Amino acid sequence: MADQAGPPAVQETTTEPPAAVMTAPATPVRDGIGLGLAVGVSGLAYGAAAVSSGLTVSQACALSLLAFTGASQFALAGTIAVGGSLAAGVVSAVLLGSRNTLYALRLAGTLAVRGPARVLAAMGVIDETTAMATAQPDRAASRTAFWATFATLYLTWNLATLAGALGAGRFGSPQGLGLDVVGPAAFLALIWPRLRSGRAERAAGAGGALIALATTPFLPPGVPIILAAPAALAVAWATRGQAASGTAPGGGTAAGSAAARDGAAR
Fold first, then answer.
1. Cβ atoms within 10 A of the Cβ of 162, count?
2. What are phi and psi of 253, to 5 degrees?
3. Please, what is the end-to-end C-alpha distance for the chain in angstroms?
């Protein structure tokens, strides 16, 4: 008589979450720190340019500490460098920095900051922090990415500003170092996936770029960027109208396009 098989072995189970879940929070922190360090280094160019244009070291550092918007700071230093008045430089800086108001409207619900902390959060609403926050899959990751990017970039930018201001005249031309293009290049890298995601995104980017390029030779710094913003609003309005009428951006109906995508997926 054959031996009867015993009860089936019970496999040990583990309650540990998958590796992807365990490491998910690290991604916005890592990316925020990486971007903050990369862009913050360009503060060297600002510090050198500010002192070379006539600002003192303390004035250059105060702008970084209190204004903390690189494009506006470069605009102010550039206006003074070409002989413009301080008032004209401030106007240019304010115009260029006013785009951050639109970013704040976009991030207000995501960050949900209350009390005195809102002042600190408002200072951190710039191109890089907004791009990092809006690129995340959920609200918690967006908040983490925002604060990680802000903290790293603020510290790095201010330290680099001090180093650049103290070393002005030793580095040579800031533009010759190529540091002035780090910020725009990093921001383009952040929005590049969105530009590839659809025709509406590409149309908004192309429209804004055309408006800015066409008006830059004739208008003060900052104004072309403000004028370029309605391009995105126009595309959003057109896309919204197409969705309401059931027409897909590429022609046909939205339902037909969805069915075609489902069929292709199968």
1. 19
2. -100, 160
3. 53
Each residue of 101-146: pLDDT tens digit?
Answer: 888 888 988 998 888 888 999 999 998 899 899 889 899 999 999 9
Give the Cβ contact number of residue 125 at 10 Å: 23
Judgement on whether residues 77 and 154 belong to the same structural domain of the protein: yes
Cβ atoms of 167 and 38 within 8 Å: the answer is no
98 in the same domain as 132: yes
Range of the domain at 167: 26-196
Q: How many domains does the chain have?
A: 2
Print burial letters for 8-28: b (CB count within 10 Å at least 16), e (below 16). Answer: eeeeeeeeeeeeeeeeeeeeb
For residue 79, being part of any structural domain is answered with: yes
Tell me: the pLDDT tens digits for 209-226?
A: 888 788 888 876 667 766
C-alpha triplet 89, 186, 126: angle, nearest 5°? 50
- 256 within domain boundaries: no
Q: Of the residues 196, 226, 261, which one is the last residue of a structural domain?
A: 196
